[in-house]
Amino acid sequence: MDPFLSLLHSFSSSLTKEELSAMKFLCWNKIRKRKLESVQSGGDLFTILLEQHDITRENVSFLEELLRDIKREDLLSKLKQFVDEGEVKAPEDQPDPHEKTMEVICDNVGRDWRMLIRKLDLSDVKIDRIVADNPRDLREQLFQCLREWQRWRGRDAKVAELITALRGCSMNLVADRVEQ
């Protein structure tokens, strides 16, 4: 499998709707309006940019600009690592240190999950969007909010911060389970 395409795929799956929308807007002068309207994912956008040779394995400057403009420094550093080393392990190959923690939290928090998410400073607008996307599934709402927090914080998303927020919400039993 092509490592560059794997990298673009991982970027695509980590983009929020707002970030994709911002990237589409920034490509307005490079991609015709009809084509741009058909873009539904980062993969669609990257495919068009690859076809038009706006991004290539050898020239990623436009992609760097896009990532910088949408303030995704985490993706920008992965791209720079790819350019420097020729390859970055796909996220599927690397264990996510938060995955187990998020599962423990989702299994143990319950109805007071919004208090926890607000303690992590996720905006009510984002919370409401996630709730609307996952009606009648509290566990998935919490999981997606934690994912959104993780994307928002990037490298600053630490398990210690989750534990502090849990303790701040008097969810000490869950915090103890996360620490284990």
Walkthrough of the structure:
Its main location: cytoplasm. Residues 3-81 form the DED domain. GO terms for molecular function: caspase binding; death receptor binding; protein-macromolecule adaptor activity. It is found in: Cytoplasm. It contains 12 helices and no strands. The protein has 180 residues and is mainly alpha-helical. Helix 7 (97-108) runs antiparallel to helix 10, helix 7 packs antiparallel against helix 12 (172-179) and helix 9 (124-133) packs across helix 10.
Question: Keyphrases for this structure?
Answer:
mainly alpha; 180 residues; 68% helix; Death Domain, Fas; cytoplasm; elongated; 12 helices; death receptor binding; 2 domains
Shape: elongated
CATH architecture of the largest domain: Orthogonal Bundle
The portion of residues assigned to helices is 55-70%
What's the number of structural domains? 2
The average pLDDT is 85
Structural class computed from helices and strand pairing: mainly alpha
The percent range for strand residues is under 5%
List low-pLDDT spans. 88-95
Radius of gyration: 18 Å
Annotation, overall tally of beta strands: 0
CATH topology assignment of the largest domain: Death Domain, Fas
Domain Death: 98-180
Domain DED: 3-81
GO molecular function: caspase binding; death receptor binding; protein-macromolecule adaptor activity
Subcellular location: Cytoplasm
